[in-house]
């Protein structure tokens, strides 16, 4: 793990490196509470932004070359590709083969339908790590400590409302993931 920290420190801005350390610690704590391997969560959290500081053109080129682009929005906003490209690069550059870790890194940017517990933990840890400051973050932290699904639903909704408020487009997968989670919860409560 220390070796990965050195690699990240050289690769990312100081602010993003510190964010990655915060996500790793938050992910490990959430994992321990939710019966997920905390070291697996710590690794995924640490490496989740591996590709975040790449220039947009490089993200687009790498994603296109690997067939990772799923919609026109990603072509127009290549920053949305930093999760999938990050998963690709940590496999190629660092030799990480843990599919659960790779998937959680790939899915942390916009979410996904049917996210695993580790996927949810990395998505949430990215949103609530200690350096994050925005209205509603404390509520998300409380929800995450009590119920991953409730916290994830609130995190999706917070992101969607923020983007709508800024007049920015929504990634279709985030909407699908929110709807899937919402409908899954209704099935559970009505069964």
Automatic annotation (TrEMBL):
<keyword id="KW-0378">Hydrolase</keyword>
<dbReference type="InterPro" id="IPR006674">
    <property type="entry name" value="HD_domain"/>
</dbReference>
<dbReference type="GO" id="GO:0046872">
    <property type="term" value="F:metal ion binding"/>
</dbReference>
<dbReference type="Pfam" id="PF01966">
    <property type="entry name" value="HD"/>
</dbReference>
<keyword id="KW-0408">Iron</keyword>
<dbReference type="GO" id="GO:0016779">
    <property type="term" value="F:nucleotidyltransferase activity"/>
</dbReference>
<keyword id="KW-0547">Nucleotide-binding</keyword>
<keyword id="KW-0808">Transferase</keyword>
<keyword id="KW-0479">Metal-binding</keyword>
<keyword id="KW-0548">Nucleotidyltransferase</keyword>
<protein>
    <recommendedName>
        <fullName>bis(5'-nucleosyl)-tetraphosphatase (symmetrical)</fullName>
        <ecNumber>3.6.1.41</ecNumber>
    </recommendedName>
</protein>
<dbReference type="InterPro" id="IPR003607">
    <property type="entry name" value="HD/PDEase_dom"/>
</dbReference>
<feature type="domain" description="HD">
    <location>
        <begin position="16"/>
        <end position="131"/>
    </location>
</feature>
<dbReference type="InterPro" id="IPR051094">
    <property type="entry name" value="Diverse_Catalytic_Enzymes"/>
</dbReference>
<dbReference type="GO" id="GO:0000166">
    <property type="term" value="F:nucleotide binding"/>
</dbReference>
<dbReference type="GO" id="GO:0008803">
    <property type="term" value="F:bis(5'-nucleosyl)-tetraphosphatase (symmetrical) activity"/>
</dbReference>
<dbReference type="InterPro" id="IPR005249">
    <property type="entry name" value="YqeK"/>
</dbReference>
